[in-house]
């Protein structure tokens, strides 16, 4: 059984009072956090979880609303010293250096030491990476180049979960979401075109080309949230289970 729970569906500015991006995938006895925005520690607790429920964190790119929560998670693990199982953090080049720089800025003196508990891994673009119970692949998308933006395609428990990260339209999204059971796709605006982001209208225009079984939109701004009743897709909400592969019973 694969369950995907939304911990945060908001944009960088918390539009609509929503948390920064974070999705918890639970399956095969592991917890995978897709992105880790600055509010993730709060969201984990608010929605009945803790960092102990997370074994892996996959980072799509190095903007604070997608990886800034690592600072607080690292600080919690180091300060409390209770964690006994490893936490693996996989991201694009620079993820370890930027996370540790932010940690030193926010909480001077904290050091992660060896990798027995906290492990950083850098993924290669387009190269599958296998973990204990799942595999994933990161594909390049179109956002701010200096934050190494990627979309993620995760295979676990017989399901494929695709996630766009932050991006303008690129046909890479078609490959990323091909036959995915769930495609979590950003839609920062409704109609306004913003560099490095998608609008709802752009996704609607291409919906016949997207071959995912289910599309759920995320990262909505105030403009998009004000027009929810016009959006012909599911929209993620904080605390909501957006995917459950368990068979339904009559």
Reconstruct the topology from this structure.
Layout: E1 3-8, E2 22-27, E3 30-34, H1 40-46, E4 56-58, H2 64-67, H3 70-80, E5 87-91, H4 95-106, E6 118-122, E7 129-130, E8 134-140, E9 150-156, E10 159-163, H5 172-177, E11 182-186, H6 200-205, E12 215-218, H7 222-225, E13 234-235, E14 241-244
Parallel strand pairs: 3-4, 4-5, 5-6, 10-11, 11-12, 12-13
Antiparallel strand pairs: 1-2, 1-14, 2-3, 7-8, 8-9, 9-10
Helix pairs in contact: 3-4
Structure description:
The protein has 250 residues and is an alpha/beta fold. The protein has a single domain, classed as Metallo-beta-lactamase, Chain A (4-Layer Sandwich), CATH 3.60.15. It is 20% helix and 26% strand. The chain is built from seven helices and 14 strands. It has a seven-stranded mixed beta sheet with strand order 6-5-4-3-2-1-14. A seven-stranded mixed beta sheet has the order 7-8-9-10-11-12-13. Helix 6 links the parallel strand 11 and strand 12. Helix 3 packs across helix 4. The longest helix is centred in the middle third of the chain and has 12 residues. It is globular, with a radius of gyration of 17 Å. The model has no long low-confidence stretch (mean pLDDT 96).
């Amino acid at each position: 059984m694969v369950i995907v729970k939304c911990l945060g569906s908001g944009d960088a500015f918390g539009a609509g009072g929503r948390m920064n991006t974070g999705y918890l995938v639970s399956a095969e006895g592991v917890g995978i956090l897709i992105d880790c925005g600055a509010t993730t520690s709060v969201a984990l607790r608010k929605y009945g979880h803790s960092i102990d429920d997370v074994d892996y964190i996959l980072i799509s790119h190095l903007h604070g609303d997608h990886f800034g929560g690592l600072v607080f998670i690292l600080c919690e693990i180091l300060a409390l010293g209770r964690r006994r199982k490893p936490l693996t953090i996989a991201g694009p080049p620079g993820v370890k250096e930027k996370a540790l720089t932010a940690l030193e800025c926010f909480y001077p003196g904290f050091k992660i030491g060896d990798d027995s508990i906290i492990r950083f891994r850098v993924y290669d673009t387009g190269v599958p990476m296998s973990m204990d119970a799942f595999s994933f692949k990161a594909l390049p998308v179109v956002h701010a180049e200096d934050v190494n933006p990627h979309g993620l395609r995760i295979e676990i428990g017989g399901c494929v979960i695709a996630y766009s990260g932050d991006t303008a339209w690129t046909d890479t999204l078609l490959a990323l979401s091909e036959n995915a059971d769930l495609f979590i796709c950003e839609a920062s605006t409704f109609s306004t075109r913003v560099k490095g982001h998608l609008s709802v209208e752009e996704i609607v225009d291409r919906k016949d080309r997207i071959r995912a079984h289910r599309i759920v939109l995320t990262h909505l701004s105030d403009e998009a949230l004000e027009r929810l009743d016009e959006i012909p897709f599911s929209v993620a909400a904080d605390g909501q289970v957006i995917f459950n592969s368990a068979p339904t019973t009559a």
